[in-house]
Amino acid sequence: MTALLKVEDLRVAFGGTAVVDGVGFEVRRGECLALVGESGSGKSVTARTLVGLTGDGAAVEAGELSFAGRDLRRMRERAWRRIRGGRIGFVLQDALVSLDPLRPVGREVAEVLAAHTGLSRAARTARVAELLAEVGVPEPELRARQLPHELSGGLRQRALIATAIAAEPELIIADEPTTALDVTIQAQVLDLLARIKSEDRSLLIISHDLAVVARLADRVAVMKDGRIVEQGPADRVLRAPEHAYTRALLAAIPAEHTKGTRLSGPAEAVRLARPEPGDVVVRVDGAGKSFRGPDGVARAAVRDVSFTLRAGETVGIVGESGSGKTTTARIALGLTEPDTGSVEVRGRAWAGLGRAEARTLRRDIQVVYQDPLASFDPRYTVDKVLAEALAVAGVPRERRRERSVELLELVGLDERHLRRRPLHLSGGQRQRVAIARALAPEPAVLVCDEPVSALDVSVQAQVLDLLDDVQRRTGVAYLFISHDLGVIYHACDRVLVMKDGQVVEQGPVERVFREPEHHYTRELIAAIPRLTTA
Amino acid sequence: MHGALRLVGWRLLTGLGVLWGAATLAFLVLHLTPGDQAQAIVGGENAAPTPEVIAQVTREYRLDEPWYVQYLLHLGRVVRGDLGTSYRLHTPVTQAIGEQAGATLELAAAAAVVALALSVVVALASAKRRRWVRGLASGSELVIASIPSFWLGILLLTVFSFGLRLFPATGSHGFQSLVLPALALALPIAGVLGHVLREALEEVLEEPFVISARTRGQGDMAVRLRHALRHALVPLITMTGYWVGALLGGAVITETLFTRQGIGRLLLGAVNAKDLPVVLGVVLLSAGIYVLVNLLVDLLYLVIDPRLRDAPAPAARTAVEGSA
Lengths: 534, 324
Fold this sequence. Notes:
By secondary structure, chain A is α/β, with parallel strands linked by helices.
C-alpha cells in the first residue's frame, strides 16, 4: 500500500508559540488513521493544516507534506481550491454550527458539486438527493430544502458528511464527527463512516474519544502537547499501550470495570469507606411538566417521574437530549414548578413555600452545571464567588475566609486560588470551584447536571474522583445527570433511564446495565462504543 | 408564513398607535403654544384683523368648542388626510408637503443607495485583511462619520463645484445637481454602517460554517458573498432606524446648503415662520415613514433569517435584537 497522505516533521506555530511540534504520520489508501488527543494537543490544527486552512497568523513548516504525490507546502490558493472538497473532504464537528444556518442543507451539498463537477444545475439537484439518501437522510428531496435547525442533530451531521463525500474525494478528514451527538445517533454516524471507509476511501479521524476511534481506526496516533507520543495499529495501541500517557488516558475512561476504583491514579490518603445510604433527602412523586411550544401546542417535557434519593447515595439520570433529564433536575431543585405530582427535599415540599422559606430550603439542595465558566461572574475572583455563596448560607463575615479555604481544600485546591478569576483557571479547576461553591451551604443534596461532559477525559477522571471523595467525607447525596453511560455506571448507585420525558427503567446500576429490562435501555447500551481492554 | 402574517398585523396595530400619538402631540402643541390660534391663522402677530374676521375664523375652525370636541375634530381631520392650511403659504399642508416630497425622496433614495453600496463594498474588501487595509478603512470611516455634514457639504462644494467645476453648486433638477448633495448626505452614514458591517463580517468569518465552506473548495470572495454577507446584514438592518433618521435629519441641512427643493427646506422655512401646521404635518409624515420602515425591516428580517419565521411575533423581534 502506498501512502496517500504523508506528513513528516510538521511544525505549526501561532505568534511564536508552537502548537504542533514535529508531527509525522501517513494515511494509506483505504486506511483509517485516528489522531487522538485531549484539548490543546494540536490535533485539530494538524487536520486543518492538511487542507491549507491552518488559520490567520500561523507559521507552518514541514519536512514533508504531500498528498497523492503532490507537495502541499508550495500549493497555490487556486490549486488548494481544487483539492479541498474535491480530493480531500472535511467534516467538522457539530453540524449545527458547521452548516450555514441561513441556507438550506441541499445548497451546501450542491455547492461542492458546482465547484468540483461539471454537472448541470438540474443534475446537481438530483445528485444532492441521491447523496442525502446515500448517507441515510430520509425524504432527501424535502430535507434538501430545509434549514439546518429544522433537522435533528443526527440528520445534520449526515448532511454535513454528504457535503464532504459529494465530489468523491479520496481522503476524508473528520474532526470530532460525533462529539455533539447522542449515543444512539453517534453509533449510526460511526456506521456511516465505516461504510464510507469500506468504499476504499481513506479516512483520518480526529477525536478525543478513544472508544469512538476503536470502532473505526486501523491505526491510532496519540497526540499530547503538539507531539505524537505513540502510534501504531489500533489493536496494539488500545490494548497494549506503550506510552505512559496512552495508558493513563485509557485508565481514565469511566466504565463498568472502573466502578469503585479511582480513575485518576491511586489516592494519596487512606480512603474513607462509602457511607451507608441514610434518610430520604429527595422524594419526587409523579412529577409532570408541560411546556408550550412556539406553535402554542403544549408538550410534556416530563411525565409521571417518581424517585427517591437517600443521604450518601448517588442516583443517576441517563437519557439522550430532549429526554427530560434537565427538567427533572429543575423540578427537584424547585426551579420549575411541576404541573402534577409533588417534590420534597428533606421532608419539605417546594409547593406552597414562601420566598424566605424557599430560600432556606434551597441551601439543602445545590447544583453544579456543565459549563462552570458560564455560571460564574467573569469579573469575580474565586474569593468573591465563595464569599457570596457563604453569605447566602448565613456564614458570618469573619468566618468566611476560613471556610473558603476549607472548601477549596475539600475540592483539591488551596488558598492560592482565592485571588484567581474563573477565566484564568483550567476547565477542571473551574469545575472544582463550582463544586466548592455548591458545597458552601453544606447541602444535603448536590444536583450535578452533566458535570464532566465539557471536560477532557483525564480531567473528567479527576473530577469524578473528587465527587466520590467529597461524598465519602461529607455524606452528601448526588443526583447525577449524564448522557454518558460509562460515567453513570462508574459514579452511580442507582439509575433512572429516561426517554421522551418518562422513566422507562430504574434500579441498581449493575442490574440495569447487566440485565436491562426495557428495550430502550438495551438499545442505549448496545450503542456505546466500547474498548475491550486486555 | 403564519408567523409573518401575525407579525405584520401586530406591527400595523402598533404603527397606528404611534401615528395616533403623533397626531395627539400635534394637537397638544397647537393648543398649548402661547398666542391666539385664530390670530395665527389670519396672518400672525403683524396682521391686524378686525374683531369680525377673528370671530368668523373662530366659528369656521370651531375654536369656540370645548377642547375634547376640538381634539376629536382634529383626529377626524387627520384621518381624512386634512392636515390644515399653512399659515405662511396659505395652501393646504398636504399640498405643500406633496410638492416638496418628490425632491427629498430622490435625494434620500440616492443617498441610501450610495451609503449602502459604499459600506458593503468597503466592508467586504477590508474585513479580516491585512492590518493596514483594515486600519485605513476604519480610520477613514471614523473621520467621515465624525465630520459635521454641513462642513462635509462645504468641502464637497469647494472641491468639486467651485474648484473642479464638475457639478453645479445649487439646483434640484437633473442627475448632475443630485451628486454632491447625495454624497454629503450618504458619506457620514456610510462611515457608520461600514464600521458595523465590517465588525459583523469579521465575527461571521470566524464561524465554523465559514471554515466548512472553505474546506469544500470555496474561494475567499465566494465565501464572503455567499455565506458571510447575509449574516452580516442583520445588524445593518437593525440599524435602519438610525440611518433613516439620519437621512431625514440630514436632508434639512443638505437641502439648505445646496439650496435644493424639498421637505427639509420646507420644514426649515416653516419653523422660522412659526408655521405650525406645516411643522406638524412633517412630524406626522416622519412618524408615518418610521412606522412603514419598521414594518419593512421586520419583514426583511424574515427574508434574511428564515429561522425567525417559525417564531411568534413578539419573540421574533427579541430573537433578532438578541443576536444583533
